[in-house]
């Protein structure tokens, strides 16, 4: 019953995302715009772009995820769905996890699919593209889970979207550091297993703690139910 409720919520959010395509297309367009404009602002030199590619792609991905996070709970708060979730017999952390997974399927997974195109635009070697996609696959889900805490804390605020990056950015930094280090190591031909293992550990930690923290914040926003 609990898993069924989470599955239904995930399907509902995915259907809403398809109907309101701008909510998840805007971050993807933003991601591609950043990737396309950086060579103009920094340097079109292939060697320079290759050196910076991992950091540029990951910063663009982080900003794109943050751009999409404000609406994770806000629509439910405005139309009364959040109150129904708080009253649901299903565990609220499980429902939060379902919403985060739906968000990630629309943004983080889409960013991972776009990553090879971004890598080609920034002259990243083919040997490093697989590592880049792996870091994005693991890391963007971690970013979404962490950002869900900020989105839950600010769901009742009128301009809460501005606060989400300020609240969660310090928690995103370790993911950003190890993900870009993995890509850089792949470019240099160095081992990347350690970096990927740490990213996977961050993901496991986020899966265990972030839904609980976001659920507690939502209960506060819903009047302590």
Radius of gyration: 18 Å
Helix count, DSSP H or I runs of 4 or more residues: 10
Helix/strand-derived category reads mainly alpha
Please bin the fraction of helical residues: over 70%
Low-pLDDT runs: none
* Annotation, overall tally of beta strands: 0
Q: What is the typical, i.e. mean, pLDDT? A: 86
Element order: H for helix, E for strand: HHHHHHHHHH
Shape: elongated
Structure commentary:
This protein has helices at 2-19, 22-41, 46-69, 71-79, 81-87, 92-106, 108-121, 126-153, 163-188, 193-221. It is 84% helix and 0% strand. The chain has 225 residues and is an all-alpha fold. Helix 6 (92-106) packs across helix 8 and helix 8 (126-153) packs antiparallel against helix 9 (163-188). 43% of the residues are buried. The chain starts with a helix and ends with a helix. The chain contains ten helices and no strands. It has one domain (2-221). InterPro entries: Cyt_c_biogenesis_CcmB (IPR003544), Cyt_c_CcmB_bac (IPR026031). Belongs to the CcmB/CycW/HelB family.
Give me the secondary-structure topology.
Layout: H1 2-19, H2 22-41, H3 46-69, H4 71-79, H5 81-87, H6 92-106, H7 108-121, H8 126-153, H9 163-188, H10 193-221
Helix pairs in contact: 1-6, 2-3, 2-7, 3-7, 3-8, 3-9, 6-8, 6-10, 7-8, 8-9, 8-10, 9-10
């Amino acid at each position: 019953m609990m898993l069924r409720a989470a599955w239904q919520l995930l399907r509902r959010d995915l259907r809403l995302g398809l109907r309101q395509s701008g909510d998840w297309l805007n971050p993807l367009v933003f991601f591609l715009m950043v990737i396309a404009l950086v060579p103009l602002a920094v340097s079109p030199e292939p060697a320079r772009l290759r050196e910076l590619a991992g950091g540029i792609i990951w910063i663009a991905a982080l900003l794109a995820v943050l751009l999409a996070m404000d609406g994770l709970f806000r629509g439910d708060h405005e139309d009364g769905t959040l109150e129904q979730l708080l009253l649901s017999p299903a565990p609220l952390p499980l429902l939060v996890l379902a919403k985060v997974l739906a968000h990630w399927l629309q943004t983080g997974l889409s960013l991972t699919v776009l990553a090879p195109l971004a890598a080609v635009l920034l002259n990243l070697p083919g040997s490093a593209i697989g590592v880049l996609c792996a870091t994005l696959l693991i890391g963007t889900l971690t970013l979404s889970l962490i950002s869900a805490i900020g989105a839950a804390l600010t769901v009742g605020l009128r301009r809460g979207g501005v606060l989400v990056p300020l609240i969660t950015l310090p928690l995103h930094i370790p993911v950003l550091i190890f993900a870009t280090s993995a890509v850089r190591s792949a470019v240099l031909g160095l081992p990347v297993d350690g970096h990927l293992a740490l990213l996977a550990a961050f993901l496991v930690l986020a899966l265990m703690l972030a839904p609980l923290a976001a659920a507690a914040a939502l209960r506060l926003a819903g009047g302590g139910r």
